Each structure stands twice: as structure tokens, then as C-alpha cells.
Amino acid sequence: MRIEVVTLFPEMLRGAVRFGIVGRALERGLALVGTEDPRAHAVDPRRTVDDRPYGGGPGMVLKPEPLLAAIRAAHARLPNGSPRILLSAQGERFTQRGAAELAALPGFLLVTGRYEGVDERVIELGVDREISIGDYVLSGGEVPALAVIDAVVRLLPGALGDERSSLEESFTQGLLEWPQYTRPEVFEGRRVPEVLTSGNHAEIERWRYARAVERTWLRRPDWIVEHGLAPRASRVLNEVLAARGAGELRRKGESHEQDRAGAREEPDGPEGAGFQAR
Ligand code: SAM
After folding, report:
1. Is the pTM of this model over 0.85?
2. Domains with residue ranges and CATH for the chain
3. Which residues on neighbouring strands pair with residue 94, listed in sequence order?
4. pLDDT for 253
5. How far apart are CA 102 and CA 82, in angstroms?
């Protein structure tokens, strides 16, 4: 895969992609990241790339001539039909599915804005889509471009040590990922859930799936409303809710008993009281 990035800060891009999974993937030749600086296409002696906005107002706007020339130069290095994508707070939201779609392409171009953004005519003439990484405004498109590159490159076959990692991750199966633990088994009084040390793979899979469903329900109900749940997830959610309801009732009963005895209620254990998926 070949990725080109149009940026006023090529060193920022080239520096950041040297690390971790992306860095290793690039070293192994799974992807190639090139950059194109609009400043190199500015024709005046001062290499001007921005100007004041028509109509007045604060800030500067990226001028169309050097930016479009940079887009065209970088696009010419990519396989035919590679999409030209502008990073923009106004774009469609970047998602895991969007990352998987880009990972299936032979190449794509990322255009990063700065200042107040880019002249609208560049979008009309040199951009196919706009992508936002979230509902907040950053000072430039380089960090969003790096987020896109990271999310895409780690999905390329061979980029991760174990291909299962990307299949099991949050959002991939329509669920957030389950909680993860590593050694030691007891840390500051908190024990790893017993099932994970049982060696019973079927039980572990069931536990993880239930925790993934529960987490998604607790943390991203909006995701469930938008995407729905697979039949298994929906069944497991009902079981989880029933178990939580039962735990709640049991806790209330216990605290009632303790109140009567004048005892103080102890805080919940590390796993949270009242629910254990079967
Ligand atoms: N004036 C623009 C607006 O109100 O939409 C914001 C410009 S922002 C300061 C400068 C550049 O940062 C943008 O052109 C874009 O490339 C990038 N950027 C900022 N926030 C972004 C986001 N949430 N997603 C993707 N790119 C973003």
C-alpha cells in the first residue's frame, strides 16, 4: 500500500511513523508513506502558502495554487483511482469500518489543512472526500492524518504479530473489547477474574464475550442504538442484565440485613458485586 500526505510539516509525519507497529510495517515494506510540501510549489520568493480570507475575519487560509499543485504531484505517485482525502473537522466521521475500507485499497492521499483551513476551490478541484477524526478542532491535519495512517496500517496483513488482535479489537465485531489482564495474578489486593486462570477456553470465551457486551452496553449505548446487536450479543446482554438485576437485589437485601445489625457496608470487591457471567 502506498500513502501520500500533503503537509506543511513533512518532518512531523516522517518522524511519527517511525515508531511501533506502523514503523515496523513500513520497515517490512507493507506500506510506504510519502509526503509532499505545498511550500515546494509556492512560486514567490517567500514561498507563501497562506493568505487572508476574502470577506475579512481572523486567521489565514491555505492558498489554492501551491496546495492543489502539491495534491496533484503526490496523487501522480499513487496507483490510479486512489482517493484524495482531506482531513477536516467538517468531514464524515472516521471509524474502524472506514479504516478497514482504506486498508483494502492499494493507495490513498491525505491532505492536511492548517490555519483556518483550505480554500474551498481546492476541495472542489482536488479532493474526493473529507474525513474528521472527531467533533473537536485541532490546529492542523497532521495528527488526524497520523491517526488514519495508524488505524489503517495496523490492519494490513502481517502488520500485527497475531492477526487475531485486529479481529478481536473494539468495534471490529460490533462490540467494545473485554477487559484485559496480565501478570501478576494479584495486584494491590485485586485478583484477576478466576475464569481467566482456569484454563477452560470455552468458559474464558463466554466470559470475555459477556464482558464485551456488558461494556458496550454501559459505555456506548449509542453504538448499540446505531448498529444494533448480533443475535448472540443480544441474548448475552439479556443474561447480563438479568444477572446484574439479581446482584442488585441481593446487594440491597444484604445491606438491609447489615443496617438492621448496625453493621457498616463494605465496599464492592474488585470485580464489582453481583454479576458473574456464566
Ligand atoms: N476553521 C476550520 C473549521 O472551523 O472547520 C478549522 C480549521 S483547523 C484549525 C486546521 C486544520 O486542522 C483543518 O483544515 C483540518 O485539516 C485539521 N483538523 C482540525 N480538526 C480536525 C478534525 N477533528 N478532524 C480532521 N482534521 C481536523
Report:
1. yes
2. 2-153 (3.40.1280.10), 168-263 (1.10.1270.20)
3. none
4. 84
5. 10
Residue of 129, 133, 138 with the most ligand 1 atoms within 8 Å of its CB, for mutation: 138
* Interval between CA 48 and ligand 1 midpoint (Å): 20
User: What is the distance in A from the centroid of ligand 1 to the CA of 224?
Assistant: 28
Q: All 3 cell numbers of residue 130? A: 473529507
Summarised one tens digit per residue, pLDDT across range 39-55 is 999 999 999 999 999 99
* Residue nearest ligand 1's atom 1 by CA: 116
Whether residue 113 has its Cβ less than 6 Å from ligand 1:
yes
139 lines ligand 1 (CB under 6 A): yes
| Nine cell digits for residue 49 | 502558502
Question: Which of 96, 121, 44, 40 lies closest to 73, judged by CA?
Answer: 40
- For 70, the grid coordinates are 502539491
Confidence of residue 34 (pLDDT cuts 50, 70, 90): very high
109 by DSSP, 3-state: which?
strand
